[in-house]
Amino acid sequence: MSHSPADLPSSAAPSPPDATRTSPSPVGPLAPELAAKRDRLIALLSELGSCAVAFSGGLDSAVVAKAAVLALGPRAVAVTGHSASLAASELDECRRLAAEIGIRHEVIDTEELANPDYQRNAPDRCYHCKSELFAKVEGLAERLGVAAVVDGSNRDDHGEHRPGLKAARDRRVRSPLAECGLTKADVRALARAWGLPIWDKPASPCLSSRIAYGEEVTPQRLEMVERAERFLRERGFQPLRVRYHRGDLARIEVDAAAVARFADEQLRRETVELLKSVGFKYVSIDLEGFRSGSLNAVLPVESLRIARSER
């Protein structure tokens, strides 16, 4: 991969807002240990010379993007992979967040849905998705003369077997947060100190994570899930998942305290009508409420360890 100390070329995308613009006020000084990790993070990124951040718009990749701007200025770029597995609202959030951070933002099309190993939806699905993403980000980085590709995995992520991490290793993607010893709690505290608006954002995995293992991932099913979740989100449900099960069955998970809202006849009728109109044949409410990774309950222990990265 080529190295260039110069600013990234600007022909491929408009320049982002100035990285020095004022952010929301921080909450106070960082603890000395976290401040030291922050300094190591910025120093590591600075040593790269330039970098492309695999940018999902989540907490971890946002902190890496912010640190990259502080370390490298215009020699940092955030790259988001776009496919049917990314909800339109999440892509919009990526764009807004990149502008808030002040980093140049590129969106590239990924083709994981053309890969039969991804479509078959086994517990290692995330490996095939990340392999495709990192290959496309690496290709863009080479065209831009960027020295390294980095991701947002943190130290806690590296404590378990995760398929996405194997994909990163296979592509020689750097993981600055993990390398500098930042845990998930550290990342959240640093995001809050930097005034990032997503410092308290919960995990928001891709739409494919809503489809039960063994059921084929298709653009049609992803659209069904996206439209169903959009409908319920517009009615104030959060957290929220609409899970796809065999036979076009929708299993709706909302906060346990919100389950009782479906006793309302009008809401129940509108929900059934909408979900059937997008392609579901059966509509169910999970009485246990929202649980991150609930589809993993059917997996044996070893497969469960593999699937945890997809919650």
Description:
- The protein is an alpha/beta fold and 311 residues long.
- It folds into two domains: 32-193, HUPs (Rossmann fold), CATH 3.40.50.620; 207-310.
- It has helices at residues 32-48, 59-72, 88-101, 116-119, 125-144, 163-170, 176-179, 184-193, 219-233, 265-277, 301-307, and strands at residues 51-54, 76-82, 104-109, 148-150, 240-245, 249-254, 282-285.
- The strands form two sheets. Strands 3-2-1-4 form a four-stranded parallel β-sheet, sandwiched between helices. A three-stranded mixed β-sheet has the order 5-6-7, with helices on one face.
- Helix 1 (32-48) crosses helix 2, helix 2 (59-72) crosses helix 8 (184-193) and helix 5 runs parallel beside helix 6 (163-170).
- The radius of gyration is 20 Å and the shape is globular.
- It starts with 31 loop residues before the first helix and ends with a helix.
List keywords for this structure.
single chain, 311 residues, alpha/beta, four-stranded parallel beta sheet, three-stranded mixed beta sheet, 41% helix, globular, disordered N terminus
Report the portion of residues in β strands. 5-15%
Structural class: alpha/beta
Please identify which CATH superfamily of the largest domain we are dealing with. Answer: HUPs
> What is the overall pLDDT average?
89
Going across the biggest sheet, name each strand in turn.
Answer: 3-2-1-4
